[in-house]
Amino acid sequence: IFLHQPKRSALNQLTRTLLRKYDCGVRPVHNWTNPTTVYIDLILQSVLDVDGKTQSITTSIWYRQIWTDEFLVWDPEEFDGVSEISLSSDAIWIPDVILSEFVDEGKSPPIPYVYVNSSGSVKNYRPMQVVLACSLEMYAFPFDKQNCSLTFRSWLHSVKEIDLALWRSAEAIANDKREFMNDGEWELLSIPSHYWQFHQDDTDYAHIQFTVLIRRRPLLYVVGLLIPSIFLMLVDVISFYLPLNSGTRIVFKISILLGYTVFRVNLTDEMPATAVRTPLIGVFFVVCMALLMLSLIKSILVVKLLHHSEKEVRQMSVSACLLDKYGSAGHVFNDSALTSIGTLDNINPCGEYELEPSLEGDLLSLNELQDTPSGLEWLHRELVSLRLALSQEDSESLGQADWLALCSKLDCFLFRLYLLVLALYAGTLMMLWASWSFA
């Protein structure tokens, strides 16, 4: 009994024939003076992460290498018309082309096979997730643009052994955005590329550099960071319209400052971490907090001045000049108005203070009736005392109104100065961010 052995498939026979005497450690050329040209193509799929603290960028790319292996050539007619097969990448020669900016391989899926056609053309296609070192400029965040390079080169072989070239034209690669995930945080501008040779130790090495130009979409950060901060600053400006003597302005401003501090702490993770330069948005938050502090200090100063005793203010020459110049409605502070707070016992009858004629008569009649006690006379004396007290209260109220008017004018002046500083600061930021966003 003869057992029938199945015939080996054409793929099996072809693979055994190609790899029977193949040495994967030898560059696959018959004439060793001929360089092996490796064609490179790159398609950017997405930008996964941009880390300003470690100065690195994580990208997902589709990478293609094509070269000619002169030892992997066959006639398709001899193998049932098979013109292309897949071989293990460990069984054949692979060029040592690497990324110069390589930091970490990331989570790239392993692809153990390559495609080889009958003419010896080897196609090594694989998706890659790579972490690259990149000099990131975060000063203009969130209106920043980044310029990162992917430089491919042979690690050991000179240009006489391995040369590099682009599989497609540089214009086609630069404008190819069909596979890029354009709905994320980053927008792909272009991927220019160029070929150059680096001379080292009397040997030239081929390099191909792809420059990834990306721009951040600022809408998320404008809505989440800038607009809430601007709203808090506007509320602080509106709080200046609270009455100066109500006692609630300072409490309200302290509440705004505390709320801004909590808002800033909660958004710390949203800010880019850099070790060299502080982003402009960080300066924006610090200056906003400084302006809130300045607003609070200004309100404390004015309220303190409002509740300062008039006698102490009169001792300050600047305040005295302000009182004389900016008194309200033509009313001039006289000594009787400023010293009217007192009792009847503090009144000097020797004419040191000028009183109204009716009040002088009441004082004379009051002095005359002090020695003749009587029920009617006692009532008359009490009425005269009440009239004097009411007159003194009117004088005191008039003095307080003048002092409140002066403090209100000072508060208005400081408020306008604060608005000027705030407008200059906001205008400068808007001009800088506008120039970066439309550049």
From TrEMBL:
Catalytic activity of the protein: Ca(2+)(in) = Ca(2+)(out); Na(+)(in) = Na(+)(out); K(+)(in) = K(+)(out)
Q: Where in the cell is it found?
A: Postsynaptic cell membrane
| Transmembrane feature ranges | 219-243, 250-267, 279-306, 417-436
Neurotransmitter-gated ion-channel transmembrane domain residues: 225-317
Q: For the Neurotransmitter-gated ion-channel ligand-binding domain, which residue ranges apply?
A: 12-218
Taxonomy, superkingdom: Eukaryota
For this UniProt record, the keywords arranged alphabetically read as follows:
Cell membrane, Disulfide bond, Glycoprotein, Ion channel, Ion transport, Ligand-gated ion channel, Membrane, Postsynaptic cell membrane, Receptor, Signal, Synapse, Transmembrane, Transmembrane helix, Transport
What is its biological role? Forms serotonin (5-hydroxytryptamine/5-HT3)-activated cation-selective channel complexes, which when activated cause fast, depolarizing responses in neurons.
Q: Could you tell me what this protein is called?
A: 5-hydroxytryptamine (serotonin) receptor 3B
Q: Taxonomic lineage per UniProt?
A: Eukaryota, Metazoa, Chordata, Craniata, Vertebrata
